[in-house]
Amino acid sequence: MTKTELIFRTLRQRIENGELEEGTRLMSLRLAADSFGVSKNIMVAVYEKLVANGLVSPRQGAGFFVERIAPSRAEPVNLRDARDAVSLLQTQLDRPYKTLVGDGRAPEEWMMNGWPALTLDPGQSSYGTAQGLPELREYIAAGQLSAGIEAGPAQVVTTFGANHGLDLVIRRFTKPGDTVLVDDPGYYPLFAKLKLCGVSVIGVPRRAIGPDPEALDDAAHRSGARMFFTQSLVQNPTGCSINLPTAHAILQVAERHDMVVVDDDPFIDLPGTEGTRLAALDQFRRVIQIGSYSKLMSPALRSGFILAENSIARSLTELKMVTTVVSSVYVERLVAEAIRGRRYEKHLNRFAKRLADSRRKGAERLRAMGFEVSGANAGGLYGWLSLPSGVEDLDLARRARAHGVFLAPGVLFKVSPGCRGTGLRVNWSRINDSRFYSFLQAETSAA
User: Fold this and answer.
1) How far apart are CA 329 and CA 337, in angstroms?
2) Assign residue 123 a region: left if phi > 0, alpha if psi is -120 to 50, beta otherwise?
3) Do the Cβ atoms of 182 and 229 come closer than 8 Å?
4) I need a surface site. Which of 49, 179, 188, 299 has the fewest CB within 10 A?
5) What distance in Å separates the CA atoms of residue 240 and residue 234, rounded to the nearest whole number?
């Protein structure tokens, strides 16, 4: 956590618990900087953030004063914390940069740009079923066979993408005050969702071959956690996959502690990825698999799915019906038609080939510059770039903004706040941009 964020949260808490009452004049910027032992520029950023959150108002020539917070209208703390945790996502959605090496998606021109003509027959434009379009669920179940996973359509629940799938699972299996285990570094929007639900997280170190089974065992024993969120293949942000021995060890830990393992894989259909899917070993005894079409087909197509054993699939269907009634029948018919006509298969092969070429060139160039990279051999969209000693990723990302370069600092993917970041998540589909290499060389050569 940065100094700005730490001081902001401290003052916000003092305002919200009434220690700093309405109308209280805050210390001057100079006195506040001395009190917290930081620069005046940091305090300027803190006060600006307090103003932006409606906690403080500036008065010309008089200073900054605490505003009244109406209990009925004040934003819940967990909502603010969750929103703060996805600031990187907001930047990716706004896209104010020219060079997007840190973006989480492939370029638009890589996505499917041709769709089958779709005319809905009478009766097909209704709500459909809560579990999802039957034809699409059949295709999803059949698509698992190549990975050695046997699942029937009854085990599939369609969703509005992988994030919706995570929402449903969190609602179904957790309650405020619970503790769950997650990859560290891991998928930061997941951390935000858990914060929003009042669920505590404990990070399990993620290595090049997967989560550390001994650390997972210890964390489960100490915390009593009964759920572990991970990614088997081409993990976000490291780009690495779980190997076979590690997959076996993780499932043994889950068995000992009666844990549910949630495997979130938005690139589930991407050809050429290496590693072992947990569901291939477990066959949904303890594993819940989440997949998506949005990362590979088009971000505008919010379509995904959950695979689970039958009773869990039924309960998630009921929860989906309560929260969203159904998912989009129209979108699901588009996806099903793209699969049926093999357009999706052809697109995936082109995508994988293009990604492999870009990944190879990017990894070679980074290594030639003396950088250590991981995730280049697993076949995914992401890689992890280790920075030289003395270079902090968050500071580097801030300096990159002035050059129109968007970077994804590794510290934002970490569970523990306040840790120092020494790496970047890179997007292999966007890595070959000369502006990025020029900036990186200039900023790290002196380190």
Assistant:
1) 12
2) left
3) yes
4) 299
5) 5
